[in-house]
Amino acid sequence: MSATVAPPGKHRPRPSQRQRVFAERTRRRVRRRQWTNTAMVAVLSGAAVVATLPLLLILFHLVREGASALSLDFFTQMPKPVGEAGGGLANAIVGTLILIGIATGIGLPVGVGAGLYLAEYRSSPLATAVRFLSDVLNGLPSIVMGIFAWQFLVRPVGHFSALAGGVALAAMMVPMVTRTTEEMVRIVPVALREAALALGYPRWRTSLTIVLRTATAGIVTGALVAIARIAGETAPLLFTAFGNQFWSVKLTEPVAALPLQIFNYAVSPYDEWHALAWAGSLVLIFIVFVISLAARFATRSRFGGMGD
Amino acid sequence: MTDDARVSAAAVTTAAPAAASGRVRVDARELNAYFGEVHAIKNVALAFQDRSVTAIIGPSGCGKSTFLRCLNRMHETVPGARVTGTVLLDGTDIYAKGSNPIRVRRHIGMVFQRPTPFPTMSIRDNVAAGLRTLGDARPSRSETDAIVERALRRAALWDEVADRLNTSALGLSGGQQQRLCIARALATEPGVLLLDEPTASLDPLSAQRVEELIYELRRDMTVVIVTHNMQQAARVSETTAFFLSGELIEAAPTQRMFTTPSDPRTEAYITGRFG
User: Fold this and answer.
1) Size of the A and B interface in Cβ pairs below 8 Å
2) Is the N end or the C end of chain B the one with fewer CB atoms within 10 Å?
3) Residue A216 belongs to domain with CATH number
4) Rounded mean pLDDT for each run of 10 residues along chain B, 275 residues in total
């Protein structure tokens, strides 16, 4: 190829016919591979774009339709009757936060505890049963969860309540958190556990202060996904939290929730309510987004990222 | 502190080993260990002198690590594993009924093949980790600081980490992490230190530092080191025990072991004919 290869005064021998045919064939093959490579990269990046397209479209659409209804009033005012201008969803926003709070307060400790149990006593009959039931529960339609919560928490009491809604959401959250916790605890190296035991740590202390601590970042991420999932659930709330046109923060009273309000407004025939539904969706997504960000921030390694 | 002198004097050239007191610190008798049906340790009797280093050598799978883990009741933490026989620690059987494995492990430190710093803890908290389990005997904050410094000095790590005690232990190199684990084991002042191939995953220079450290530690504790590196056994130990297929073939003063072993299997192993 370059002059340095061929010694001066000597020319390279002419390639034979066979060599030329072979070289041509190689060139063609390489060209085809390059083409295949380009095509595959294009297909895969296309798939990647398509995968994120819905989110982008949703965000774009929500902003376009809902931004007009977003104002300070939206966050501070109560819903107004049809025909009256303005009004907001203050009660629904607060209600959703209350419901998320109840669900997380119950679902997180139960889920983490159950997950830790599954990981630590992985082959006990109870663990096998719980693991199986968790998977079943994970796939349970949320409307069924709502009916179940109504049967046990609404009917005996005689009225809808925020508590019943929170419990229904917690029941949806538990299996998700359980399985993530189990996975995260399982990938903590045995060597770490042994190191703690060899230091004279009792088993419970090893589990809580070494194993669980090490798995925390992963568990929090999993819990966040679970919270984000339940934050937008509507079906379990239909028969439990029920929704409320008025301001209520009492746990024993029906409470408004963004998903319910969005549903009610979206199926209504009024344009102003449609706009409010869009704005409500935007706020709901924003709440999920803020929860994610906050937890990311909270679990950032205190050693500036070196720890993960 | 005398620790300074001790650390700076750390050198493989130290002539005579600190005189072994001749007192038996750990005494294993008729020790058998099993993994389910597998008989991993077969009727081993071996005593460890106070203030000395005993090396356990043997080919892979001969049970040397398992034997070591029987000495601080770590073997039984593996599902399906069990132990029979006795191990006397200062005359008390650690396998006696009513003996608490957690208390036993507090008196017997252990360091593993791979460095195992706790990833969520700072360097300081790693060293102090063992102190947290002491309940009422738990030292105060200032006492803890002093203990951490002493342990890190004994592990010859203090100078390298003194200015970053509150940073992550994962920021240290592999050799530093292993010395951190030794410091962590030393912080609770155990009388016995078990080392399971402590230099196997380290580069030669780090391994040398750890060896120097082991050589120093014999001054005030009983050290048992499992190694598949025979040169290392020859360098750091006073007594060497040779294991094969779960049996103790021979235990003798290191020098005699490596010059005139009495069992032909020992000779075959140390001359490199197998293993």
Assistant:
1) 71
2) N
3) 1.10.3720.10
4) 39 38 85 93 93 93 93 92 93 91 91 92 93 80 92 91 93 92 93 93 88 89 92 92 93 92 91 78
